[in-house]
Amino acid sequence: MTEPDATPTPDASFSRRGLLGLAAAGGIGAVAGLAAGAAIASAPDATGGTPASARYPFFGEHQAGITTPAQDRLHFAAFDLAPDATRDDLASLLADWTEAAARLTQGLEVGEAGAVGGSPYAPPDDTGEALGLPASGLTITFGFGPTLFGTADGVDRFRLAARRPAALEPLPRFSGDALVPERSGGDLCIQACADDPQVAVHAIRNLSRIAFGRAMLRWSQLGFGRTSSTSTSQTTPRNLFGFKDGTANIKAEEPDAVAEHVWVSREQGPEWLVGGSYLVARRIRMIIESWDRVQLAEQEALFGRTKGEGGPMSGGGEFAAIDLAATARDGSPVIARDAHVRLAHPETNGGIRLLRRGYNFVDGNDALGRLDAGLFFLSFQNDPEHFVTVQRSLASDGLNEYLKHVGSAVFAIPPGAHEGDSIGDTLLN
Amino acid sequence: MPAADGLNSDGTSAWLDWRPSTPEQRTQFGDQLVADVQQLFDQVTDADFSVSLSDISNGAIGLLDEVATGKISGEEDWWSHTDLTDFAANVDGASVAFGNVQKLAAQSDEGAKLAEEIETQFDALERVLAQYGSIEAGFTPYDQLTDAQRKQLSDAVNALAEPLSQLTSTVLGL
Questions:
Q1: For the region Disordered, what residue ranges are annotated (chain B) (predicted)?
Q2: Is-contact A312 A418, C-beta < 8 A?
Protein backbone atom coordinates (compact mmCIF):
# COMPACT_ATOMS: atom_id res chain seq x y z
CA MET A 1 0.00 0.00 0.00
CA THR A 2 1.13 3.51 -0.62
CA GLU A 3 2.08 6.03 2.04
CA PRO A 4 -0.59 8.42 3.26
CA ASP A 5 -1.00 11.30 0.91
CA ALA A 6 -3.30 14.26 1.15
CA THR A 7 -4.31 13.95 -2.47
CA PRO A 8 -4.15 10.27 -3.34
CA THR A 9 -2.82 9.75 -6.83
CA PRO A 10 -2.90 6.56 -8.82
CA ASP A 11 0.19 4.43 -8.30
CA ALA A 12 2.09 2.51 -10.96
CA SER A 13 -0.20 -0.49 -10.68
CA PHE A 14 -3.20 1.51 -11.83
CA SER A 15 -4.44 0.50 -15.20
CA ARG A 16 -5.35 3.01 -17.83
CA ARG A 17 -8.91 2.01 -17.38
CA GLY A 18 -8.56 2.56 -13.62
CA LEU A 19 -7.28 6.06 -14.23
CA LEU A 20 -10.34 6.86 -16.27
CA GLY A 21 -12.50 5.47 -13.51
CA LEU A 22 -10.83 7.65 -10.91
CA ALA A 23 -11.13 10.72 -13.03
CA ALA A 24 -14.81 10.04 -13.41
CA ALA A 25 -15.19 9.46 -9.70
CA GLY A 26 -13.40 12.68 -8.83
CA GLY A 27 -15.63 14.66 -11.10
CA ILE A 28 -18.87 13.15 -9.95
CA GLY A 29 -17.94 13.05 -6.28
CA ALA A 30 -18.91 16.68 -6.03
CA VAL A 31 -22.44 16.02 -7.25
CA ALA A 32 -24.55 15.74 -4.15
CA GLY A 33 -26.97 12.88 -3.80
CA LEU A 34 -25.37 10.60 -6.34
CA ALA A 35 -24.36 7.22 -5.03
CA ALA A 36 -20.58 7.17 -4.90
CA GLY A 37 -20.47 3.52 -5.93
CA ALA A 38 -22.38 4.14 -9.09
CA ALA A 39 -19.98 6.87 -10.07
CA ILE A 40 -16.92 4.69 -10.26
CA ALA A 41 -18.72 1.87 -12.01
CA SER A 42 -17.85 3.70 -15.20
CA ALA A 43 -14.64 1.71 -15.35
CA PRO A 44 -15.71 -1.92 -15.59
CA ASP A 45 -13.31 -4.45 -17.05
CA ALA A 46 -14.15 -6.98 -19.70
CA THR A 47 -15.61 -9.49 -17.25
CA GLY A 48 -17.97 -6.96 -15.75
CA GLY A 49 -16.02 -6.63 -12.50
CA THR A 50 -14.11 -3.57 -11.39
CA PRO A 51 -10.38 -3.06 -11.87
CA ALA A 52 -8.25 -4.03 -8.86
CA SER A 53 -7.20 -0.42 -8.51
CA ALA A 54 -10.72 0.95 -8.04
CA ARG A 55 -11.09 3.19 -5.01
CA TYR A 56 -14.44 4.21 -3.60
CA PRO A 57 -14.83 7.24 -1.33
CA PHE A 58 -15.68 6.26 2.24
CA PHE A 59 -17.50 9.46 3.12
CA GLY A 60 -20.76 10.49 1.50
CA GLU A 61 -24.53 10.74 1.83
CA HIS A 62 -24.93 6.95 1.87
CA GLN A 63 -22.51 4.31 3.02
CA ALA A 64 -20.57 2.61 0.22
CA GLY A 65 -20.94 -1.13 -0.31
CA ILE A 66 -24.66 -1.04 -1.06
CA THR A 67 -25.18 0.33 -4.56
CA THR A 68 -21.45 -0.01 -5.25
CA PRO A 69 -21.02 -2.58 -8.06
CA ALA A 70 -20.77 -5.84 -6.10
CA GLN A 71 -17.11 -6.76 -5.64
CA ASP A 72 -15.97 -10.35 -6.04
CA ARG A 73 -15.07 -11.07 -2.42
CA LEU A 74 -16.58 -10.63 1.01
CA HIS A 75 -15.57 -10.79 4.65
CA PHE A 76 -18.56 -10.11 6.86
CA ALA A 77 -18.28 -9.85 10.64
CA ALA A 78 -20.75 -9.42 13.50
CA PHE A 79 -19.57 -8.08 16.86
CA ASP A 80 -20.89 -7.88 20.40
CA LEU A 81 -20.03 -4.98 22.67
CA ALA A 82 -18.03 -5.95 25.78
CA PRO A 83 -20.21 -6.72 28.85
CA ASP A 84 -18.98 -3.60 30.65
CA ALA A 85 -18.83 -1.31 27.59
CA THR A 86 -20.33 2.15 28.03
CA ARG A 87 -21.97 4.54 25.59
CA ASP A 88 -18.64 6.40 25.45
CA ASP A 89 -16.89 3.16 24.49
CA LEU A 90 -19.40 2.68 21.67
CA ALA A 91 -18.87 6.24 20.43
CA SER A 92 -15.07 5.98 20.59
CA LEU A 93 -15.15 2.62 18.81
CA LEU A 94 -17.28 4.00 15.96
CA ALA A 95 -14.96 7.01 15.68
CA ASP A 96 -11.87 4.77 15.55
CA TRP A 97 -13.53 2.43 13.04
CA THR A 98 -14.53 5.36 10.84
CA GLU A 99 -11.00 6.75 10.80
CA ALA A 100 -9.53 3.33 10.01
CA ALA A 101 -12.14 2.53 7.33
CA ALA A 102 -11.58 5.89 5.63
CA ARG A 103 -7.89 5.01 5.28
CA LEU A 104 -8.27 1.33 4.37
CA THR A 105 -10.77 2.00 1.59
CA GLN A 106 -8.26 4.38 0.00
CA GLY A 107 -5.61 1.66 -0.08
CA LEU A 108 -3.74 3.07 2.91
CA GLU A 109 -2.52 1.24 5.98
CA VAL A 110 -4.78 1.31 9.01
CA GLY A 111 -2.66 3.82 10.93
CA GLU A 112 -0.02 6.33 9.93
CA ALA A 113 2.92 4.32 11.30
CA GLY A 114 1.73 1.34 9.29
CA ALA A 115 3.23 -2.14 9.25
CA VAL A 116 6.92 -1.20 9.35
CA GLY A 117 7.15 2.54 10.07
CA GLY A 118 6.58 2.46 13.82
CA SER A 119 8.67 1.78 16.92
CA PRO A 120 10.72 -1.43 16.74
CA TYR A 121 9.67 -1.98 20.37
CA ALA A 122 5.93 -1.93 19.68
CA PRO A 123 3.75 -4.26 17.62
CA PRO A 124 3.18 -2.81 14.15
CA ASP A 125 0.18 -0.53 13.72
CA ASP A 126 -0.99 -2.40 10.64
CA THR A 127 -0.91 -6.20 10.39
CA GLY A 128 0.86 -5.93 7.02
CA GLU A 129 -0.70 -8.59 4.81
CA ALA A 130 -2.08 -5.96 2.43
CA LEU A 131 1.27 -4.21 1.93
CA GLY A 132 1.76 -3.60 -1.78
CA LEU A 133 -1.86 -4.39 -2.65
CA PRO A 134 -4.06 -1.72 -4.23
CA ALA A 135 -7.39 -0.67 -2.68
CA SER A 136 -9.06 -3.38 -4.78
CA GLY A 137 -12.42 -1.64 -4.65
CA LEU A 138 -12.67 -2.13 -0.88
CA THR A 139 -15.85 -0.86 0.74
CA ILE A 140 -16.57 -1.06 4.48
CA THR A 141 -20.19 -0.83 5.59
CA PHE A 142 -21.26 -0.61 9.26
CA GLY A 143 -24.56 -1.64 10.85
CA PHE A 144 -26.36 -1.73 14.21
CA GLY A 145 -28.21 -4.85 15.44
CA PRO A 146 -31.45 -4.82 17.50
CA THR A 147 -29.52 -5.79 20.66
CA LEU A 148 -27.61 -2.50 20.53
CA PHE A 149 -30.89 -0.79 21.44
CA GLY A 150 -31.77 -3.19 24.24
CA THR A 151 -30.94 -6.78 25.12
CA ALA A 152 -33.45 -9.63 24.91
CA ASP A 153 -34.14 -9.21 28.64
CA GLY A 154 -34.76 -5.48 28.25
CA VAL A 155 -31.49 -3.95 29.44
CA ASP A 156 -30.80 -0.59 27.76
CA ARG A 157 -26.98 -0.66 27.95
CA PHE A 158 -26.30 2.44 25.87
CA ARG A 159 -29.37 4.61 26.57
CA LEU A 160 -30.52 3.98 23.00
CA ALA A 161 -33.87 2.25 23.57
CA ALA A 162 -35.79 5.44 22.75
CA ARG A 163 -33.99 5.75 19.41
CA ARG A 164 -34.64 2.21 18.28
CA PRO A 165 -36.34 2.14 14.88
CA ALA A 166 -39.70 0.41 15.22
CA ALA A 167 -38.82 -1.74 12.20
CA LEU A 168 -35.62 -3.06 13.77
CA GLU A 169 -36.86 -6.27 15.34
CA PRO A 170 -35.20 -9.68 15.29
CA LEU A 171 -36.55 -11.56 12.25
CA PRO A 172 -39.46 -13.92 12.90
CA ARG A 173 -39.04 -17.65 12.59
CA PHE A 174 -39.44 -18.98 9.04
CA SER A 175 -40.18 -22.52 7.92
CA GLY A 176 -36.92 -24.26 7.11
CA ASP A 177 -34.98 -22.32 9.75
CA ALA A 178 -32.31 -24.35 11.53
CA LEU A 179 -30.61 -21.35 13.04
CA VAL A 180 -27.43 -21.65 15.07
CA PRO A 181 -27.32 -18.87 17.71
CA GLU A 182 -23.53 -18.55 17.43
CA ARG A 183 -23.91 -17.75 13.72
CA SER A 184 -26.77 -15.31 14.25
CA GLY A 185 -27.40 -11.82 15.57
CA GLY A 186 -24.84 -9.33 16.87
CA ASP A 187 -24.74 -5.78 18.27
CA LEU A 188 -22.72 -4.40 15.33
CA CYS A 189 -21.75 -5.59 11.87
CA ILE A 190 -19.11 -4.79 9.30
CA GLN A 191 -19.43 -5.79 5.67
CA ALA A 192 -16.06 -5.62 3.89
CA CYS A 193 -16.19 -6.20 0.13
CA ALA A 194 -13.21 -6.11 -2.23
CA ASP A 195 -11.99 -7.63 -5.44
CA ASP A 196 -9.06 -9.21 -3.57
CA PRO A 197 -9.90 -11.54 -0.65
CA GLN A 198 -6.71 -10.59 1.19
CA VAL A 199 -7.78 -6.95 1.19
CA ALA A 200 -11.22 -7.77 2.63
CA VAL A 201 -9.76 -10.02 5.33
CA HIS A 202 -7.11 -7.43 6.17
CA ALA A 203 -9.88 -4.89 6.79
CA ILE A 204 -11.88 -7.10 9.17
CA ARG A 205 -8.74 -8.28 10.96
CA ASN A 206 -7.52 -4.77 11.66
CA LEU A 207 -10.95 -3.46 12.62
CA SER A 208 -11.36 -6.42 15.03
CA ARG A 209 -8.02 -5.54 16.56
CA ILE A 210 -9.10 -1.94 17.09
CA ALA A 211 -12.21 -3.22 18.87
CA PHE A 212 -10.50 -5.47 21.46
CA GLY A 213 -11.68 -4.50 24.93
CA ARG A 214 -14.73 -2.66 23.54
CA ALA A 215 -16.27 -5.22 21.18
CA MET A 216 -15.49 -8.81 20.27
CA LEU A 217 -16.10 -10.85 17.16
CA ARG A 218 -19.30 -12.89 17.44
CA TRP A 219 -19.30 -14.60 14.04
CA SER A 220 -17.84 -13.95 10.62
CA GLN A 221 -18.28 -15.23 7.09
CA LEU A 222 -16.06 -15.30 4.02
CA GLY A 223 -17.67 -15.17 0.59
CA PHE A 224 -15.79 -15.90 -2.60
CA GLY A 225 -18.09 -15.17 -5.49
CA ARG A 226 -20.67 -12.45 -5.74
CA THR A 227 -24.10 -13.86 -6.50
CA SER A 228 -25.73 -10.60 -7.56
CA SER A 229 -24.96 -7.75 -9.84
CA THR A 230 -25.83 -4.30 -8.53
CA SER A 231 -24.88 -2.41 -11.69
CA THR A 232 -25.91 -2.81 -15.31
CA SER A 233 -22.17 -2.76 -16.10
CA GLN A 234 -21.83 -6.17 -14.46
CA THR A 235 -22.60 -9.59 -15.91
CA THR A 236 -25.00 -11.71 -13.88
CA PRO A 237 -23.02 -14.21 -11.79
CA ARG A 238 -24.04 -17.73 -10.81
CA ASN A 239 -24.81 -19.23 -7.44
CA LEU A 240 -23.61 -22.68 -6.36
CA PHE A 241 -26.72 -24.29 -7.87
CA GLY A 242 -25.13 -23.23 -11.15
CA PHE A 243 -27.87 -20.74 -12.01
CA LYS A 244 -27.66 -17.05 -12.79
CA ASP A 245 -28.93 -15.19 -9.78
CA GLY A 246 -30.10 -11.66 -9.25
CA THR A 247 -30.98 -10.90 -12.87
CA ALA A 248 -33.90 -8.74 -11.75
CA ASN A 249 -31.93 -7.15 -8.90
CA ILE A 250 -32.14 -3.43 -8.18
CA LYS A 251 -29.28 -1.74 -10.04
CA ALA A 252 -27.42 1.43 -9.12
CA GLU A 253 -28.49 2.85 -12.48
CA GLU A 254 -32.15 2.84 -11.37
CA PRO A 255 -32.10 5.81 -8.95
CA ASP A 256 -35.88 5.81 -8.57
CA ALA A 257 -35.97 2.14 -7.59
CA VAL A 258 -33.03 2.62 -5.21
CA ALA A 259 -34.80 5.57 -3.58
CA GLU A 260 -38.10 3.70 -3.38
CA HIS A 261 -36.82 0.37 -2.08
CA VAL A 262 -33.38 0.81 -0.49
CA TRP A 263 -32.90 4.11 1.36
CA VAL A 264 -34.89 4.97 4.47
CA SER A 265 -36.92 8.07 3.68
CA ARG A 266 -37.83 10.97 5.97
CA GLU A 267 -41.44 9.71 6.06
CA GLN A 268 -40.28 6.30 7.21
CA GLY A 269 -37.78 7.64 9.75
CA PRO A 270 -36.45 7.68 12.36
CA GLU A 271 -34.57 10.85 11.53
CA TRP A 272 -31.13 9.46 12.40
CA LEU A 273 -31.59 6.63 9.90
CA VAL A 274 -32.71 8.71 6.89
CA GLY A 275 -30.44 7.88 3.97
CA GLY A 276 -29.59 4.58 5.61
CA SER A 277 -31.08 1.15 5.06
CA TYR A 278 -31.65 -2.24 6.69
CA LEU A 279 -29.44 -5.22 6.03
CA VAL A 280 -30.65 -8.79 6.30
CA ALA A 281 -27.95 -11.50 6.42
CA ARG A 282 -28.81 -15.19 6.08
CA ARG A 283 -26.33 -18.04 5.94
CA ILE A 284 -28.15 -20.50 3.68
CA ARG A 285 -26.57 -23.91 3.48
CA MET A 286 -27.13 -25.70 0.16
CA ILE A 287 -27.30 -29.47 0.10
CA ILE A 288 -25.42 -29.43 -3.17
CA GLU A 289 -24.67 -33.17 -3.32
CA SER A 290 -28.41 -33.88 -3.56
CA TRP A 291 -28.99 -30.97 -5.94
CA ASP A 292 -26.33 -32.27 -8.30
CA ARG A 293 -28.39 -35.45 -8.80
CA VAL A 294 -31.48 -33.53 -9.90
CA GLN A 295 -32.29 -33.79 -13.62
CA LEU A 296 -31.70 -30.67 -15.71
CA ALA A 297 -35.38 -30.20 -16.62
CA GLU A 298 -36.39 -30.37 -12.97
CA GLN A 299 -33.62 -27.97 -11.93
CA GLU A 300 -34.89 -25.46 -14.49
CA ALA A 301 -38.50 -25.98 -13.43
CA LEU A 302 -37.59 -25.42 -9.78
CA PHE A 303 -35.88 -22.14 -10.63
CA GLY A 304 -38.22 -21.04 -13.39
CA ARG A 305 -35.22 -20.10 -15.54
CA THR A 306 -33.05 -21.89 -18.06
CA LYS A 307 -29.70 -22.97 -16.69
CA GLY A 308 -27.67 -21.85 -19.70
CA GLU A 309 -28.72 -18.36 -20.59
CA GLY A 310 -30.89 -17.71 -17.55
CA GLY A 311 -33.97 -16.68 -19.51
CA PRO A 312 -37.38 -17.19 -17.89
CA MET A 313 -39.16 -20.47 -18.72
CA SER A 314 -41.94 -18.32 -20.17
CA GLY A 315 -39.58 -17.44 -23.02
CA GLY A 316 -37.00 -14.88 -24.10
CA GLY A 317 -33.43 -14.09 -23.09
CA GLU A 318 -32.00 -13.44 -19.63
CA PHE A 319 -33.51 -9.99 -19.26
CA ALA A 320 -36.91 -10.81 -20.82
CA ALA A 321 -39.86 -9.98 -18.60
CA ILE A 322 -41.19 -12.98 -16.74
CA ASP A 323 -44.73 -13.96 -17.80
CA LEU A 324 -46.17 -15.53 -14.66
CA ALA A 325 -49.57 -16.00 -16.33
CA ALA A 326 -48.27 -18.02 -19.31
CA THR A 327 -49.86 -21.46 -19.55
CA ALA A 328 -48.92 -24.60 -21.41
CA ARG A 329 -51.31 -26.33 -23.81
CA ASP A 330 -52.72 -28.42 -20.97
CA GLY A 331 -53.50 -25.26 -19.02
CA SER A 332 -50.76 -25.70 -16.40
CA PRO A 333 -48.58 -22.66 -15.68
CA VAL A 334 -45.32 -22.54 -17.66
CA ILE A 335 -43.62 -21.14 -14.61
CA ALA A 336 -44.49 -23.67 -11.93
CA ARG A 337 -46.44 -22.63 -8.84
CA ASP A 338 -43.50 -23.51 -6.64
CA ALA A 339 -40.84 -22.07 -8.98
CA HIS A 340 -38.34 -19.80 -7.25
CA VAL A 341 -38.70 -16.88 -9.67
CA ARG A 342 -42.48 -16.87 -9.24
CA LEU A 343 -42.40 -16.79 -5.44
CA ALA A 344 -39.61 -14.21 -5.29
CA HIS A 345 -41.09 -12.01 -8.03
CA PRO A 346 -42.27 -8.47 -7.14
CA GLU A 347 -45.68 -9.27 -8.71
CA THR A 348 -46.17 -12.06 -6.16
CA ASN A 349 -45.05 -9.81 -3.30
CA GLY A 350 -46.97 -6.60 -3.75
CA GLY A 351 -44.23 -4.91 -5.77
CA ILE A 352 -41.50 -5.46 -3.19
CA ARG A 353 -37.93 -5.43 -4.51
CA LEU A 354 -34.81 -6.12 -2.47
CA LEU A 355 -31.28 -5.05 -3.34
CA ARG A 356 -29.49 -8.38 -3.07
CA ARG A 357 -25.74 -8.47 -2.54
CA GLY A 358 -25.01 -12.06 -1.51
CA TYR A 359 -21.94 -14.25 -1.90
CA ASN A 360 -21.19 -17.93 -2.40
CA PHE A 361 -19.36 -19.69 0.39
CA VAL A 362 -17.67 -23.03 0.95
CA ASP A 363 -16.38 -23.49 4.50
CA GLY A 364 -14.70 -26.89 4.17
CA ASN A 365 -16.99 -29.84 4.79
CA ASP A 366 -19.22 -31.39 7.43
CA ALA A 367 -18.72 -34.66 9.33
CA LEU A 368 -20.61 -36.55 6.61
CA GLY A 369 -18.11 -35.49 3.97
CA ARG A 370 -20.52 -33.02 2.34
CA LEU A 371 -19.26 -29.59 1.33
CA ASP A 372 -20.33 -26.96 3.83
CA ALA A 373 -21.42 -24.76 0.97
CA GLY A 374 -24.16 -22.33 0.17
CA LEU A 375 -25.27 -18.79 -0.23
CA PHE A 376 -24.50 -16.02 2.22
CA PHE A 377 -27.58 -13.99 1.38
CA LEU A 378 -27.35 -10.25 1.94
CA SER A 379 -30.15 -7.86 1.07
CA PHE A 380 -30.62 -4.14 1.61
CA GLN A 381 -34.14 -2.70 1.88
CA ASN A 382 -35.73 0.27 3.61
CA ASP A 383 -37.94 -1.97 5.73
CA PRO A 384 -36.98 -5.44 7.01
CA GLU A 385 -40.66 -6.36 6.62
CA HIS A 386 -40.04 -6.43 2.85
CA PHE A 387 -37.60 -9.28 3.32
CA VAL A 388 -40.04 -11.01 5.68
CA THR A 389 -42.79 -10.84 3.04
CA VAL A 390 -40.59 -12.36 0.33
CA GLN A 391 -39.20 -15.01 2.68
CA ARG A 392 -42.72 -16.05 3.72
CA SER A 393 -43.68 -16.27 0.07
CA LEU A 394 -40.70 -18.58 -0.44
CA ALA A 395 -42.07 -21.01 2.17
CA SER A 396 -43.44 -23.18 -0.67
CA ASP A 397 -40.32 -22.76 -2.85
CA GLY A 398 -39.43 -26.08 -4.47
CA LEU A 399 -35.77 -25.29 -3.83
CA ASN A 400 -36.30 -25.56 -0.06
CA GLU A 401 -35.66 -29.27 -0.24
CA TYR A 402 -32.03 -28.36 -0.96
CA LEU A 403 -31.70 -25.40 1.43
CA LYS A 404 -31.24 -24.91 5.17
CA HIS A 405 -31.05 -21.48 6.81
CA VAL A 406 -28.42 -21.76 9.56
CA GLY A 407 -27.55 -18.12 10.32
CA SER A 408 -29.69 -14.99 10.49
CA ALA A 409 -29.21 -11.36 11.42
CA VAL A 410 -30.72 -7.96 10.77
CA PHE A 411 -29.00 -4.60 11.12
CA ALA A 412 -29.92 -0.95 10.72
CA ILE A 413 -27.43 0.61 8.31
CA PRO A 414 -26.89 4.25 9.26
CA PRO A 415 -26.44 6.85 6.52
CA GLY A 416 -22.95 7.71 5.34
CA ALA A 417 -20.76 10.07 7.33
CA HIS A 418 -19.43 13.36 6.06
CA GLU A 419 -15.72 13.93 6.25
CA GLY A 420 -14.79 14.86 9.80
CA ASP A 421 -17.82 13.03 11.25
CA SER A 422 -18.11 9.42 12.33
CA ILE A 423 -20.48 6.65 11.32
CA GLY A 424 -23.26 6.62 13.91
CA ASP A 425 -22.99 10.31 14.83
CA THR A 426 -26.62 10.79 13.79
CA LEU A 427 -27.62 8.09 16.28
CA LEU A 428 -25.42 9.09 19.21
CA ASN A 429 -25.47 12.88 19.03
CA MET B 1 17.10 -20.28 31.60
CA PRO B 2 19.75 -23.07 31.36
CA ALA B 3 19.34 -26.49 32.92
CA ALA B 4 15.68 -26.05 33.64
CA ASP B 5 14.62 -29.44 32.29
CA GLY B 6 13.16 -30.55 35.58
CA LEU B 7 10.69 -27.67 35.65
CA ASN B 8 8.82 -28.99 32.67
CA SER B 9 9.33 -32.73 32.87
CA ASP B 10 6.17 -33.52 34.79
CA GLY B 11 3.94 -32.21 32.10
CA THR B 12 5.87 -32.97 28.96
CA SER B 13 6.74 -36.57 29.82
CA ALA B 14 3.07 -37.35 29.82
CA TRP B 15 2.79 -36.01 26.27
CA LEU B 16 5.95 -37.51 24.83
CA ASP B 17 5.82 -40.87 26.51
CA TRP B 18 2.61 -42.65 27.36
CA ARG B 19 4.16 -44.99 29.92
CA PRO B 20 3.60 -43.86 33.49
CA SER B 21 6.78 -42.78 35.28
CA THR B 22 8.40 -45.30 37.61
CA PRO B 23 8.91 -44.28 41.27
CA GLU B 24 12.65 -43.94 40.52
CA GLN B 25 11.98 -41.60 37.61
CA ARG B 26 9.63 -39.50 39.71
CA THR B 27 12.27 -39.21 42.41
CA GLN B 28 14.72 -38.12 39.74
CA PHE B 29 12.31 -35.50 38.31
CA GLY B 30 11.57 -34.23 41.81
CA ASP B 31 15.25 -33.87 42.65
CA GLN B 32 15.87 -32.06 39.37
CA LEU B 33 12.96 -29.71 40.07
CA VAL B 34 14.36 -28.78 43.48
CA ALA B 35 17.80 -28.24 41.96
CA ASP B 36 16.38 -26.04 39.14
CA VAL B 37 14.43 -23.87 41.55
CA GLN B 38 17.52 -23.48 43.72
CA GLN B 39 19.57 -22.49 40.67
CA LEU B 40 16.92 -19.93 39.66
CA PHE B 41 16.86 -18.54 43.20
CA ASP B 42 20.66 -18.29 43.29
CA GLN B 43 20.77 -16.49 39.96
CA VAL B 44 18.15 -13.86 40.74
CA THR B 45 19.54 -13.16 44.23
CA ASP B 46 23.13 -12.88 43.02
CA ALA B 47 24.65 -9.44 43.57
CA ASP B 48 25.47 -9.25 39.86
CA PHE B 49 21.92 -10.04 38.75
CA SER B 50 20.20 -7.32 36.77
CA VAL B 51 17.25 -7.04 34.41
CA SER B 52 16.55 -4.35 31.90
CA LEU B 53 13.33 -2.36 31.72
CA SER B 54 12.38 -4.07 28.51
CA ASP B 55 13.00 -7.47 30.15
CA ILE B 56 10.35 -6.56 32.69
CA SER B 57 7.72 -5.16 30.35
CA ASN B 58 8.40 -7.87 27.76
CA GLY B 59 8.07 -10.37 30.61
CA ALA B 60 4.58 -9.07 31.35
CA ILE B 61 3.65 -9.26 27.66
CA GLY B 62 5.14 -12.75 27.35
CA LEU B 63 3.29 -14.10 30.38
CA LEU B 64 -0.02 -12.93 28.95
CA ASP B 65 0.82 -14.25 25.47
CA GLU B 66 1.33 -17.66 27.08
CA VAL B 67 -2.17 -17.43 28.48
CA ALA B 68 -3.64 -16.42 25.12
CA THR B 69 -1.93 -19.14 23.10
CA GLY B 70 -1.61 -22.13 25.45
CA LYS B 71 -3.90 -21.88 28.41
CA ILE B 72 -7.10 -20.39 26.99
CA SER B 73 -7.42 -23.40 24.67
CA GLY B 74 -7.02 -25.84 27.57
CA GLU B 75 -4.37 -27.77 25.67
CA GLU B 76 -1.48 -27.20 28.07
CA ASP B 77 -2.97 -29.06 31.02
CA TRP B 78 -4.95 -31.54 28.96
CA TRP B 79 -4.61 -34.18 31.66
CA SER B 80 -4.83 -32.27 34.91
CA HIS B 81 -7.26 -29.47 33.82
CA THR B 82 -5.46 -27.09 36.19
CA ASP B 83 -5.18 -24.47 33.43
CA LEU B 84 -6.85 -21.76 35.48
CA THR B 85 -4.22 -22.02 38.23
CA ASP B 86 -1.47 -21.54 35.64
CA PHE B 87 -3.59 -18.83 34.04
CA ALA B 88 -3.93 -16.91 37.30
CA ALA B 89 -0.23 -17.34 38.11
CA ASN B 90 0.71 -15.85 34.74
CA VAL B 91 -1.69 -12.94 35.23
CA ASP B 92 -0.23 -12.34 38.72
CA GLY B 93 3.28 -12.41 37.31
CA ALA B 94 2.36 -10.03 34.49
CA SER B 95 0.66 -7.73 36.99
CA VAL B 96 3.77 -7.61 39.23
CA ALA B 97 6.00 -6.92 36.23
CA PHE B 98 3.65 -4.18 35.06
CA GLY B 99 3.62 -2.68 38.57
CA ASN B 100 7.40 -2.35 38.43
CA VAL B 101 7.34 -0.16 35.33
CA GLN B 102 3.92 1.47 35.73
CA LYS B 103 5.23 4.78 37.13
CA LEU B 104 7.87 4.99 34.46
CA ALA B 105 5.31 4.32 31.73
CA ALA B 106 2.96 6.97 33.11
CA GLN B 107 5.43 9.85 32.72
CA SER B 108 3.95 11.06 29.44
CA ASP B 109 0.26 11.84 28.94
CA GLU B 110 -0.09 9.08 26.42
CA GLY B 111 1.79 6.71 28.71
CA ALA B 112 -0.47 7.62 31.63
CA LYS B 113 -3.50 6.80 29.49
CA LEU B 114 -1.98 3.48 28.49
CA ALA B 115 -1.08 2.59 32.11
CA GLU B 116 -4.60 3.42 33.23
CA GLU B 117 -6.11 1.28 30.47
CA ILE B 118 -3.82 -1.63 31.36
CA GLU B 119 -4.76 -1.34 35.03
CA THR B 120 -8.47 -1.29 34.18
CA GLN B 121 -8.11 -4.38 32.03
CA PHE B 122 -6.05 -6.23 34.68
CA ASP B 123 -8.87 -5.57 37.15
CA ALA B 124 -11.49 -6.76 34.67
CA LEU B 125 -9.57 -9.96 33.91
CA GLU B 126 -9.03 -10.66 37.62
CA ARG B 127 -12.76 -10.24 38.22
CA VAL B 128 -13.57 -12.81 35.53
CA LEU B 129 -10.98 -15.22 36.95
CA ALA B 130 -12.26 -14.78 40.51
CA GLN B 131 -15.59 -16.33 39.45
CA TYR B 132 -13.80 -19.66 39.28
CA GLY B 133 -11.68 -19.61 42.46
CA SER B 134 -8.28 -18.39 43.57
CA ILE B 135 -4.69 -19.62 43.58
CA GLU B 136 -4.96 -20.31 47.31
CA ALA B 137 -8.31 -22.09 47.25
CA GLY B 138 -7.93 -23.71 43.84
CA PHE B 139 -9.88 -23.19 40.61
CA THR B 140 -12.71 -24.97 38.83
CA PRO B 141 -11.19 -27.64 36.55
CA TYR B 142 -10.94 -26.11 33.07
CA ASP B 143 -12.87 -28.91 31.38
CA GLN B 144 -15.92 -27.89 33.39
CA LEU B 145 -16.06 -24.44 31.79
CA THR B 146 -18.52 -23.92 28.93
CA ASP B 147 -17.38 -22.47 25.61
CA ALA B 148 -19.16 -19.23 26.51
CA GLN B 149 -17.21 -19.03 29.79
CA ARG B 150 -13.94 -19.70 27.97
CA LYS B 151 -14.78 -17.00 25.44
CA GLN B 152 -15.42 -14.54 28.27
CA LEU B 153 -11.93 -15.30 29.62
CA SER B 154 -10.43 -15.04 26.14
CA ASP B 155 -12.14 -11.70 25.52
CA ALA B 156 -10.75 -10.36 28.81
CA VAL B 157 -7.24 -11.60 27.92
CA ASN B 158 -7.42 -9.92 24.49
CA ALA B 159 -8.69 -6.70 26.04
CA LEU B 160 -5.62 -6.62 28.31
CA ALA B 161 -3.06 -7.99 25.86
CA GLU B 162 -3.72 -5.34 23.21
CA PRO B 163 -2.75 -2.27 25.34
CA LEU B 164 -0.10 -4.29 27.20
CA SER B 165 1.64 -4.99 23.86
CA GLN B 166 2.41 -1.23 23.69
CA LEU B 167 4.09 -1.17 27.12
CA THR B 168 7.72 -1.75 26.14
CA SER B 169 7.76 0.99 23.53
CA THR B 170 6.10 3.39 25.99
CA VAL B 171 8.44 2.54 28.89
CA LEU B 172 11.52 2.91 26.72
CA GLY B 173 10.14 6.03 25.08
CA LEU B 174 11.23 4.63 21.72
A1: 1-24
A2: no
